[in-house]
């Protein structure tokens, strides 16, 4: 890191607060912020090591956490466009609900996600992903990209021994219901979902799996000009959400009926939808923080962490 540049970036309640330098002591607290609990995030920015920092030493590597989690999903999972509505090319992945949750739980994190992917069908792919697909190859669905080391290459098989999670959060299945002209067949869709769970259990014995359903207030209950959130667009049309909800609950019931005992069901409250949106209706930074705030205690209790 270049001499004199910030060593640590400080975020206060999802807003940039200050930068800390190794050459001086800085108090990141702000006047007037003591009336209620605040959330501080300290993050070291990526940088080259062309010059030694003012501290004149390299910091010791932190101990590797023993807890391991994996989040499986789509653009919502990785925080696509969470910086703002007009910043679709910028994603603060370190402030997605997956990353925030893993950091709080002091857990290693692996995110397996593909923008636009669903369980059985996918939506239009971002250009950066579409150009990597082989000519004529359809965009991958969850069963495809989960077994690949490179989601765009069918022949690249992933080695599941490289990372063995103790917990998997499946935040998948929104893109299957974007097109209301033809919904997936429920029997086939739930079969694919349960099949994906069985495949995970086969390679990760003893893992716990959470099926996560997003609330309507986050995906499709957004009304421009309502006053509760910044104007934007929906991820799903309001008429599509009940179908999405019914299919997810049916998949969970099917898993339980099949005797799968390590599967759990989680839906954040409507509160997570009461924040300004990022790009194309995706959650903004505050929305991701709100999801994480509700997911953390649920996972802590479930895992006894």
UniProtKB/TrEMBL annotation:
Pfam families: Lipase_GDSL. InterPro entries: GDSL, PCW_deacetylase/CE, SGNH_hydro_sf. Residues 21-46 are annotated as: Disordered. GO terms for molecular function: hydrolase activity, acting on ester bonds. Belongs to the 'GDSL' lipolytic enzyme family. PANTHER family: ESTERASE, SGNH HYDROLASE-TYPE (PTHR37834:SF2), GDSL-LIKE LIPASE/ACYLHYDROLASE DOMAIN PROTEIN (AFU_ORTHOLOGUE AFUA_2G00620) (PTHR37834). This is SGNH hydrolase-type esterase domain-containing protein. It comes from Apatococcus lobatus.
